[in-house]
Design a protein that fits this description.
Elements: H1 4-16, E1 21-25, E2 31-35, E3 42-44, E4 55-59, E5 68-72, E6 75-79, H2 108-123, E7 129-139, H3 145-155, E8 160-166, E9 170-176, E10 179-184, E11 187-198, H4 211-230, E12 234-246, E13 249-259, H5 265-272, E14 280-281, H6 283-293, E15 304-308, E16 313-318, E17 322-325, E18 329-338, H7 344-363
Antiparallel strand pairs: 1-2, 1-8, 2-6, 3-5, 4-5, 4-15, 7-14, 7-18, 8-9, 9-17, 10-11, 10-16, 11-13, 12-13, 15-16, 17-18
Helix pairs in contact: 1-3, 2-7
Length: about 375
């Protein structure tokens, strides 16, 4: 990786000028920054996504398939062995993020009551699973955001570390362990990631995990496989599950591969989103339950983001382990998958463990 000082300066320029940009580090790849020369965010109809190349998709949880937002790559910086010319950012003009009142943290009693109501709905047959999220206000000096980005890269070498700003969404940072899709040379892979345990207690072998976690993983895997079959993909192969560590927690993960052939990658992306790993199953019932039980706007949380390059390779990640950053604090989003047998207090504790991804990184800055 190139000198962090140059990366820190480039991130500072992007943030201080309010540029519409995305900085991202894919696992085992150098950091890249894609920035627009003008601030206005653009959108594309999902049916036309094949016409889009070298763009950073930045989709919210509640996504209209006719308006998929993306950040252009007017300026591309790659922080490899040879440092980029960060003065290219001087040709870009930015804009402030959206104004609005600062959201509040979710109270434990509110979250646990929603979990209890979710388990009742599951027992009645309304749903099989629903993912409930909560928010947490965290003190954070916005001026330290470049340092936090670099700290996150050090602590999580296997995660997708992204930092983005747009005038529509404001400033967001995330560290995702979960691919939505990875496509290269007409071969596509999707991660089915579900089931969570603290990293210190998670068995190293999947078969040794509890029935609740294993069932949750199977549910998500079967949903992804059904999507492939509905779109008539061929040569679909599932490999897993395996145990993957992500910050202070571990998950069960299954890789699902298929040949793209003449099918549109955009169709697969939009059919998958939002997956049962961040929404629930059936999708419509879970989304309805989330809308009626979460008082906060998920915004980019549980959406997806990443570089879209059908001419090269595309790597999109589910936007979990993320937060929206304000001047002196951040709004951290965490969630838990609720299935039959979920315990409200245990699910709250799971979200606490997931929050440690960023709480520990922030603490390390002091």
């Amino acid at each position: 990786m190139n000198d962090h000082g140059q990366l820190r300066e480039a991130l500072h320029r992007c943030l201080s000028a309010g540029l519409t940009f995305a900085a991202f580090r894919r696992p085992d790849q150098p950091v890249e920054i894609w920035a627009q020369r003008t601030p206005d965010l653009e959108f594309i109809d999902g049916a036309l996504m094949l016409e889009l190349n070298e763009a950073f998709l930045i989709a919210p949880f509640d996504l209209s398939n006719e308006r998929v937002p993306f950040i252009r790559s007017d300026v591309q910086l790659r922080f490899g062995e040879l440092g980029p010319d960060i003065d290219m950012l001087n040709n870009c003009v930015g804009a402030a993020g959206p104004a609005g009142a600062m959201p509040t943290s979710t109270e434990a009693a509110v979250f646990e009551r929603a979990v209890a109501e979710a388990t009742s709905a599951i027992a009645s047959g309304t749903m099989q699973k629903v993912v409930l999220s909560r928010t947490l206000i965290v003190p954070l000096d916005g001026a330290r955001l470049p340092d936090l980005y670099i700290q996150a890269m050090r602590e999580q070498p296997d995660a997708f570390i992204a930092l983005a700003h747009t005038p529509l969404h404001g400033t967001w940072i995330g560290a995702s362990p979960e691919h939505l899709v990875f496509e290269e040379e007409d071969r596509v892979r999707v991660d089915a990631l579900a089931g969570t345990l603290p990293i210190g207690t998670a068995p190293s072998e999947p078969h040794a995990w509890g029935e609740k976690e294993r069932n949750e993983q199977v549910l998500v895997t079967e949903s992804v496989l059904d999507t492939f079959l509905q779109l008539e993909f061929k040569e679909v192969i599932a490999r897993g599950p395996t145990v993957v560590n992500a910050g202070q927690v571990a998950h069960l993960r299954t890789f699902i591969h298929a040949d793209l052939d003449d099918r549109m990658l955009g169709d697969l992306v939009l059919a998958l989103h939002p997956t049962p790993a961040v929404c629930g199953s059936p999708k419509a019932a879970a989304k309805s339950f989330i809308a009626s039980h979460e008082s906060h706007d998920r915004a980019l949380y549980a959406g997806f983001w990443g570089p879209w390059s059908p001419d090269g390779f595309t790597e999109l990640f589910v936007n979990i382990r993320c937060m929206r950053v304000f001047e002196h604090e951040a709004l951290l989003y965490v969630g838990a998958g609720i299935v039959a047998g979920s315990d409200p207090k245990a699910e709250w504790e799971e979200t606490d463990q997931k929050a440690q991804t960023w709480l520990r990184a922030i603490a390390a800055l002091k």
